[in-house]
Amino acid sequence: MNCMENLKVGIIGLGLIGKQHVEAVARIPGVELAAITEYDSELLSAQQRYLSVKAYSDYKSMIDNEKLDVIHNCTPNLLHFKINRAVLEKGIHVYSEKPLALSIEQGMELTHLAQAKGLANGVNFNYRNNAMVQDMKSRMQKKDTGCCLIIHGHYLQDWLLYNTDSNWRLSAKEGGSSRALADIGSHWFDTVQVVTGKRTTTVYAQNFIAHPVRKKPAGNHWIEYPVETEDGGMIFFEMEGGIRGSVLISQVSAGYKNQLFISVDCEKYSMRWNQEQSDRLFIGTRESGITEYFASPETVDENARRYATLPPGHPVGWADAFTNGIREFYRSLFYGSYKNATPTYSDFENATYIMKIVGACIKSNQSGKWEKV
């Protein structure tokens, strides 16, 4: 490592995802959680007692009063752009939850600002950091698979199945003009682009809203409200090099809790990965059918070994991939590689490109035509 050690970190937002950031940071040597920010006073007080760090109700006070090296932005979508910009302007490295911002223009502004400031910038697309995803990437890079013929898959959830299911993400003002595609479709496209090393270039999308009107409780009765953002979509796409594929995105598919599934079908064999069985890679051949490989340092490619942190039979899952991504970000800080090397984590530029894919899907749904990213 270079001289950049004992990095001081501040985390903004301590909801479900913020707590995951707290735990991930605690697992990385040389990284110290110095301060936290949360608007919910009860949650802030509880976390301060648990973590024994300085606590602020306002992020501006935290970045003004604390000498921090890195900020983790774990707030709702509406706040991402404002906070990320403020942190960069203070000369602090930033690791943000996705989406980077609510518009492509905002994403581009943040990308240019981070580059101009020479600051490390990351966005949490955690599935790319699973050991088996990295193994798939290595197989593709070494051309062990032969030519890629087609890619297909889905990302299915059921947490918004009923018309009485409600969440801030349903609001276009708070969550953005796209919901399912921006929330989970973005993860699917990022993961596929990491595996193939290719960018998505054109899309044809048919989106849907399962419940145009939903209900939310208000005292002893229900209030109806219109839904503007999609519950899912069926998307055909083409990538660099002419690779074609399809994906189904849905947040209203009963029994599917968080199933991100990818099949990369190549000349020599296919590779199938299911996030709900994230420690396994299924290799399919015409001669032998399906062979199941478990994640471990002994079974994955040497370039993926640092992502396989446990021996076989000890499942590496969502939280492990989450920590891997944050560890990769700090690795680039410790070694200074963020200044001149293509990052292994998603930076602002990549996150903005993912936003462009989602934007092209929304445009295609409206136009009924193939649209360029």
Q: How would you describe this protein?
A:
The protein is built from 10 helices and 17 strands. The protein has 373 residues and is of the alpha/beta class. It folds into 2 domains: 7-126, 3-Layer(aba) Sandwich (Rossmann fold); 128-316 and 348-372, Dihydrodipicolinate Reductase, domain 2, CATH 3.30.360. A 9-stranded mixed beta sheet has the order 16-15-14-13-7-12-11-8-17. The protein is globular, with a radius of gyration of 21 Å.
Which key terms come to mind for this protein?
373 residues; alpha/beta; Rossmann fold; Dihydrodipicolinate Reductase, domain 2; 10 helices; globular
Task: Please sum up the structure shown.
It contains ten helices and 17 strands. The protein is α/β, with parallel strands linked by helices. It folds into two domains: about 120 residues, 3-Layer(aba) Sandwich (Rossmann fold); about 210 residues, Dihydrodipicolinate Reductase, domain 2 (2-Layer Sandwich), CATH 3.30.360.10.
Radius of gyration equals 21 Å
Give the tally of structural domains.
Answer: 2
Low-confidence stretches: none
Span from first to last CA? 39 Å
The assembly state of the depicted protein chains is: single chain
Write down the CATH topology of the largest domain: Dihydrodipicolinate Reductase, domain 2
Shape: globular
Going by CATH, the architecture of the largest domain would be 2-Layer Sandwich
Q: What share of the residues lie within helices? A: 25-40%
Number of strands: 17
Q: What is the mean pLDDT?
A: 94
